[in-house]
Amino acid sequence: MIEPYSPPRKLSISQLSFIKIFSLIHRIIRGLANNILDKKYTKPREFSNAILRDYAPLFTGSIINVSGWKDSDLEGNTYRKYFSNAESYHISNAPVKSKGVGSLPGLEIEIDLTKPINSSLMHSFDIVCNHTTLEHVFDLNTAFKNLCDMAREVVILIVPTPRHIHFNAGYGDYNRLTPMGIMKYFEKNKFETLVIQSNEQQFSPIFCFAIAARKGSKYTKLIKKNLNFEMGGKLYGSRFNQAHIEKHVNL
């Protein structure tokens, strides 16, 4: 019978005591931070909403918020308002009993990211936006391809990286993409990554924000290329090496 893993050497009582003390201090500091500090230091959605508000008005045409639930930004607004220059705006959700805006006929499109999309949805929206959904889809390849296939022009993506596990009876929690992983998936689907940014909130989970275009050259004057592969440096320390990055992705 295989025994559960244990450290290769026994720790002394004093070492165990220090570990418990530091763990307790860590929990107390994080608890205080989450209850006392301004949300901009503790909530990753503050970061993703702020950067999306900057970029969203740049885009025109038809926009879809894929798996957007009720389109809420959880700050009292809707993402529809971020895209102030959109000609049309749509919301999709998975075909399940629990609905986002689906109680109002005509407002919600049913799209199951776990299955290849219908041919009628291919290149059917100028801009595809997806916020913190891919971690809940087991077949990441299919889901990522679906987002790219729906977009005529641009995909805007927000994903959690290191974060607490979160799931319920309706959806699981399977994947965590790094900035490099996001860029590789866009490369695989013939998109050029224009923006990769991660928050550096010391007491917050980490969100990664990305924008990729089918034809990157079209957006040269509109969006300054900004690829930052640093992720969680303030939380975990930094081991970022630009030369190493260039070995794995096309910058």
Give a topology summary.
Elements: H1 13-36, H2 44-55, E1 61-66, H3 79-82, E2 86-93, E3 108-110, E4 125-131, H4 140-150, E5 151-160, H5 179-188, E6 192-198, E7 207-213, E8 226-227, H6 233-236, H7 242-245
Parallel strand pairs: 1-2, 1-4, 2-3, 4-5, 6-8
Antiparallel strand pairs: 5-7, 6-7
Name the features.
eight-stranded mixed beta sheet, 251 residues, single chain, alpha/beta, Rossmann fold, 20% strand
In brief:
It is built from 7 helices and 8 strands, in the order ααβαβββαβαβββαα.
Descriptive notes:
By secondary structure, this protein is an alpha/beta fold. The protein has one domain (39-225): Vaccinia Virus protein VP39 (Rossmann fold). 27% of the residues lie in helices and 20% in strands. The chain contains 7 helices and 8 strands. It has an 8-stranded mixed beta sheet with strand order 3-2-1-4-5-7-6-8, with helices on both faces. The radius of gyration is 20 Å and the shape is globular. The relative contact order is 0.13.
Proportion of residues in extended strands: 15-25%
Q: Main beta sheet: strand number and arrangement?
A: 8 strands, mixed
Q: What share of the residues lie within helices?
A: 25-40%
**Overall geometric form:** globular
Which architecture name does CATH use?
A: 3-Layer(aba) Sandwich
Which residue ranges are poorly predicted, with pLDDT under 50 across at least 5 consecutive positions? none
Gyration radius from CA atoms, angstroms: 20 Å
CATH topology: Rossmann fold
Instruction: Return the string of H and E elements.
Output: HHEHEEEHEHEEEHH
Summed up, the domain count is 1
CATH class: Alpha Beta
Structural class by secondary-structure content = alpha/beta
CATH homologous superfamily annotation = Vaccinia Virus protein VP39
The number of E-state strands comes to: 8
What's the average pLDDT?
A: 85
**Distance between the first and last residues' Cα:** 50 Å
Widest sheet: strand order?
A: 3-2-1-4-5-7-6-8
- In DSSP terms (H or I, runs of 4 or more residues), the helix count works out at 7
